[in-house]
Amino acid sequence: MKGEVHSHLEESIRPYIDLIDTLRSVGIHKDLALPTIAVIGDQSSGKSSVLEALSGIALPRGSGIVTRCPLELRLKKVAGGVNWKAVLSYRDKKTEFVDSSLVENYIEQAQNELAGKGVGICDELITLEVMSPDVCDLTLIDLPGIARVPVKGQPEDIEKQIKRLIIKYIEKQETINMVVVPCNIDIATTEALIMAQKVDPEGKRTVGILTKPDLIDRGTESKIMDIAQNKTIPLRKGYIMVKCRGQHQINEKISLEEAAQKERDFFQKHNFFRHLIHFESKSLFMLFIYLFFTHFCQKSLPQLNEQIKKQLWDLRNELKECDAGPPQDPKGTLIGFINQIKSISEGELIIEENLFAQLRMEFKKWNDHLNETNLNLLLQEIKFNQNYRGRELLGFSNYKMFEVVLQKHVTTLKEPAIDLLSAIKGIFMFNIFLDKIYNIQSVQQEKAEKRISEQFEMEHMIFTQDPIYLKSLREITKEPFSEEQLPLFDKKCTYSEMLSLIFFQIVVQRMSDQLPMMITLFMLKQTAHLLSIDMLSLLDGANVSELLFEDSDVGKKRRDLHARLDRMRIVKYKLL
């Protein structure tokens, strides 16, 4: 039964984690806060041991400051075919490896590069993505342990630096604060818990993890019991007590499985702690975290849409204040680039992901959205058509009402169409080197938007060929209508809203095909052609770098605003 519950919870949380990972992949975390679990604690509180228990990964550990940069640990449960694979990335570097014993070395190398060798800290993020059938779907951020007294080589304000870094993460309302507290110290003096209380005074998004229960002094068990039972410093989500693998057990080469068994034995035999609902196994620990995180996401994610709408509005207004600038193309291997653009536009698979497969996937979403709009919105509108009825007698059709309702619903499709254009632009930008096509893509996007707007204006004319309309009518009604009947044809009283639905389905078919064709023509075919011409002309230029360089704050601001606007549009479309 426990396994079934755990499996069900994994399935329920996976859509949230996949969505959050997708949003991160397009860089939206640079603009909006996403649901996150931050792990914090004082130095030597047992943070690394807790993370190891959750992930099964041996992270750097030891006395003093070990975590010197924020570490984002992305765990992804995968099916067979992959035993264990990891990708470590920071700045513009990325390292893939399949040996889990190398994790500690790679993290230490990254920290040395970002924070310098020694004991300093840096707020740049290191991301470790681990894919394995043995991990749970979860993303955690490990933050440096709080140091109160600087050691040799550390600045005098090291405590302030660490606290400032931690606050950046835990003050966000979208962050769950997992506070690690050792049982063998006075909980009231724990800096990590004090910081969590300041940013989350009601304790709604804070959970306490009690570690090292085997190291407490005899006679203090009742005090620890009061803490564990949420009586001393209450938190809305309470406390979890764990006994993780310690440094001594690591030195003795005790495996995680053996350590987990020793943990179970410890709690079952302890005179006091055996009465607690403890989480002595990774499975039970994850049940709690899954429940907490799923509930948290359900409350946080719906607010994203409103935040995205507001930022889109603000970004568009800011961009209006910036003049159009030159493309930022550096001089490089232009001939090779031209050949690559030509190959991609013709559908050759020279890149890791099939461009046209991605396009078909996005175009299918557009088609699905059109069909959902057709069925759900139009039927509801026409059922209550008394508001549109004019002077005609009962049973006669009011064409103006038919026209107004259809125009209204066609108009609602325009914004999703523009969002589709932005999402497709994002695919092209990703696959064809952003810096080399940005200017041309922007011009082409304006042309495509103009043609899409013209298409919607044409759809307001409410027109289709009689044979096409009759064909659809015959398919729906199963009656053999002919063109000779048209002059006397008025079936509104017989078929009610069906006639409007028939025409709207014709509109849906037109839009489902024509918009993808327009977008592909302007954003892929024409862009590739124009870009090739531009690249060839640059080869004959005197000084390419001078022609393409814009050294101004306005240019930098413009590029940043365009990048943010594209991210927002892509995310808005993915949240449809």
UniProtKB/TrEMBL annotation:
Where found?
Cytoplasm
PROSITE patterns noted in UniProt: G_DYNAMIN_1 (PS00410), G_DYNAMIN_2 (PS51718), GED (PS51388)
Q: Which CDD domains match?
A: DLP_1
User: A single GO BP annotation from the record?
Assistant: receptor internalization
The cross-references to InterPro entries, in alphabetical order and at most eight, read: Dynamin, Dynamin_GTPase, Dynamin_GTPase_CS, Dynamin_N, Dynamin_stalk, G_DYNAMIN_dom, GED, GED_dom
Domain GED residues, every copy: 493-576
Domain Dynamin-type G, chain residue ranges per copy: 31-302
Q: Which UniProt keywords apply?
A: Cytoplasm, GTP-binding, Nucleotide-binding
Q: Which residues form a coiled coil?
A: none
Q: Where is the signal peptide?
A: none
Q: Which SUPFAM superfamilies match?
A: P-loop containing nucleoside triphosphate hydrolases
- What is the predominant subcellular site recorded for this chain? cytoplasm
Task: Quote a single Gene Ontology cellular component term.
Answer: nucleus
Gene Ontology molecular-function annotations: GTP binding; GTPase activity; microtubule binding
UniProt similarity note = Belongs to the TRAFAC class dynamin-like GTPase superfamily. Dynamin/Fzo/YdjA family.
Which PANTHER family does the record cross-reference, listed alphabetically? DYNAMIN, INTERFERON-INDUCED GTP-BINDING PROTEIN MX-RELATED
The protein in question is named: Interferon-induced GTP-binding protein Mx3-like
Species in which this protein is naturally found: Sinocyclocheilus grahami
